[in-house]
Amino acid sequence: MVKVKICAGSHCSLVGALNILETLEELQEEYPDQIQIEKVECLDKCEDIKKAPVVKVDDELITSAQNQIVISKVMERIK
Amino acid sequence: MSKLKGIYTDIVKIRRMVFAELAGLALKDAECEEFDKIPYRIIDTEEATYRSSIFKERAIVAARVRMGLGMDYETNQEHKLLSEGIRDFLNNDNQLTEPLVNVIRFACEKCPTNAHFVTNNCRKCLAHPCSIVCPVDAVSIEEHAAVIDQEKCINCGKCKEACPYEAIVNYERPCAAACGVDAIESDDYNRARINQNKCVSCGQCIIACPFGAIADKSMIYQLLKSINRGEDVRAIIAPSFVGQFGPLVSAEKIVAALKKLGMKEVREVSLGADFASLHEAELFAEDVPEQQSYIGTSCCPSWTYIADKHVPETRENISDSSSPMIFAAQSVKENNQDSKVVFIGPCVSKKLEALSEKVKDEVDFVITFEELAAIFVAADIELTKVEAEEEISDASYYGRAYANAGGVAEAIRQNLKEKYEIDPPITKADGLADCKKTLTKAKAGVLEGHLIEGMACEGGCVGGPGTLLATNRGAKNVSKFAEQSPYKFAFENDKLNDRD
Questions:
Q1: Is residue B245 less than 8 Å (CB to CB) from chain A?
Q2: Is B384 at the interface with chain A, CB within 8 A?
Q3: How much is the pTM?
Q4: SS in 3 state form for chain B?
């Protein structure tokens, strides 16, 4: 089970977190038993907006997260 | 719908960063010189990331800054510091004027206009059906591949359909493909040019351009300055707002955050939708079919501009009822005459509606959800941590459902059924091209007795260019929020009794 925490705070939502969440949820439909998504309040890691969005895949913190990077990290762990 | 709608790209990122920078400077009451630094803060690399040079990248950001302040697009033919132009503008009228949607000409990459090309998928096959099906003999088989003579080609697409290797592509300008009213033309340099006589300011081309070369103007700066001056600013927020600021940010939190930003009051525009649906039902019951053979809804400004500019014969059948925005603004100003009203919505063309003679005294500012999200960041308001105070319950189920395609007509129909025992045939026009087609049908007389709903954005307001959420997600949130309304029908809404 891959646990993904995705920040849904103001900064992260502005710069793409909502779209990463969408893709993750679509992926979760394909692998319902292997992905757990938790939307969390600001993780306080984005003091500079350039570090947003912030996503945690298991224990790995990803700043300036991009869709393709988050998804590939999740897929690596599913395989 | 443009393929880019709902995808977060670097174009979206830059656009939002510009909004956040503008909001930050407005909130700080910064000097004009500060604006010169924005392009450097946003493009802070040493080498170009997106274009031929960082200088061009920064010049494009500067053009975005200008339009973000509401200023006209300027060519780069004259030497003028960004801050100088800004000072002149802010010292003078500082109001946004038409044209609202503009091509940043030097950012346009001159995509080929509608043309068929043979790609290297071509195997120069023996059958070569491409050349056989061509009605104008434009396809010849050359040394390595099929070649289309662009002079002869009429873009019928037959060769593309016939090719067994999918080797022929139809190359269309994404901006022009998104424009259902054919307002995108080419200038002398073959760059996209918007024909303002045709443009209905819906903003779909802004989303569609993969080079980020089209932008609209904003009122972020003017709004925040007004709040800074201590003016009594009150917000009305469009029905599609639910969930736009993230899954953890409830409608109540958005209201609380707006108050934290300095708004004295926040109302749902859905309240205005309840007024509007009752008014439009009344007009329909009175006028159709005796005075008017059909009625079109009036809430979508781009839809009404399509009637104005493209099918003027239908214009007088578009209801003259005020839009939900106007009703909502009036309900605020009635009791607070000196207040300023900001409409917050998914819509680009509402910015233009607010400039019109009829509306300019009712609505003072229009900003989009996307612009507001940037303002929250600039103001350091963390939405997930704002304490929600009161519940909002301004509108009925059907008023709240106005934001989804079909919702407007359904609300009016419910009123007609209940109050006038009329159940009219309904035609729904969804998207720009469909709107134009529907109006053309109406003009031809085939929609007699119909209630016609026009939505320039596909999916309705939730598909607007100023949204942050994908259209289908926005639609789901709107429906869920509508379910929570204390009233089902507009005529059950107690809040309407205050005025008649």
A1: yes
A2: yes
A3: 0.94
A4: CCCCCCCCCHHHHHHHHHHHHHHHHHHCCCCHHHHHHHHHHHCCCCCCCCCCCHHHHHHHHHHHHHHHCCCCCCCCCCCCCHHHHHHHHHHCCCCCCCCCEEECHHHCCCCCCCEEEECCCCCCCCCCHHHHHCCCCCEEECCCCEEECCCCCCCCCHHHHHCCCCCEEEECCHHHHHCCCCCEEECCCCCEEECCCCCCCCCHHHHHCCCCCEEECCCHHHHHHHHHCCCCEEEEECHHHCCCCCCCCCHHHHHHHHHHHCCCEEEEHHHHHHHHHHHHHHHHHHHCCCCCCCEECCCCHHHHHHHHHCCHHHHHHECCCCCHHHHHHHHHHCCCCCCEEEEEECCCCHHHHCCCCCCCCCCCEEEEHHHHHHHHHHCCCCHHHCCCCCCCCCCEHHHHHHHCCCHHHHHHHHHHHHHHCCCCCEEEEECHHHHHHHHHHHHCCCCCCCEEEEECCCCCHHHCCCCCCCHHHHHHHHHHHHHCCCECCHHHCHHHHHCC
